[in-house]
């Protein structure tokens, strides 16, 4: 990986063929939880634990947020936390997988609702990505800053889901290059640049700032097109 700490910008250099295949299957099905938990039911203790963990991990980081503190903020017992999550690393993984699932769905839905052109689909994908990072900034911040605390086995599980999102972008760009809409001679690196740029929004965006999430998404889609050297078909 070029940068395993970055949620959106994690490079897929020399990725094994089996993981590429699995990532494409996940993207095709829209099931970013393939082989994992479908997520906590709304209003459940599990959902309360996840919500409290997101808040505390965002405020204090992985080592600063203890499971007992998470239980207290969630209004549950420590035993309840261990019932759903055997360790803090399992809780972190669940948060990141849920973020991947929601992001993948939003990107895919946006692409499906766009026009047939590669440029239209690329704008839709980039806009959805930025909008998600702006509206779910705490989770995306955690994904960038705390993923290093996952052990190799858990990180590998997460990377499959990240790859599914990256694959959506790579296939659109490949279509655009083949069709003459995108002129970049470096499509893979251009995708990494776009994803890194978009995921970085979570580090600094504030909803009370001068730009709405929609306005920011529109602006970043323009930047994304520049990175793939969008232009008229030749």
Give a verbal description of the structure.
There is one protein chain. With 234 residues, this protein is an all-alpha fold. The radius of gyration is 18 Å and the shape is elongated. It contains eleven helices and no strands. The longest helix has 28 residues. It has a domain of 144 residues: Tetracycline Repressor, domain 2. Helix 5 packs antiparallel against helix 6 and helix 8 packs across helix 9. The N terminus is likely disordered.
Describe, in short, the structure shown:
With 234 residues, the protein is mainly α.
Shape: elongated
Helix share, percent: 55-70%
Strand composition percent: under 5%
State the order of secondary-structure elements, H for helix, E for strand: HHHHHHHHHHH
CATH architecture of the domain at 17-35 and 103-227: Orthogonal Bundle
Structural class determined from secondary elements: mainly alpha
Return the CATH topology of the domain at 17-35 and 103-227: Tetracycline Repressor, domain 2
Tally of contiguous helical segments: 11
The mean pLDDT is 85
The separation of the N and C termini measures 34 Å
Computed Rg = 18 Å
Can you tell me the residue ranges where pLDDT is under 50 for at least 5 consecutive residues? 1-13, 32-38
Main beta-sheet annotation:
none
Give the full name of the CATH homologous superfamily of the domain at 17-35 and 103-227. Answer: Tetracycline Repressor, domain 2
Topology (SSEs and partners):
Blueprint: H1 17-29, H2 45-64, H3 67-74, H4 78-84, H5 88-112, H6 118-135, H7 137-146, H8 152-179, H9 187-199, H10 201-204, H11 213-227
Helix pairs in contact: 1-8, 2-3, 2-5, 2-7, 5-6, 5-7, 5-8, 6-7, 6-8, 6-9, 6-11, 8-9, 9-11
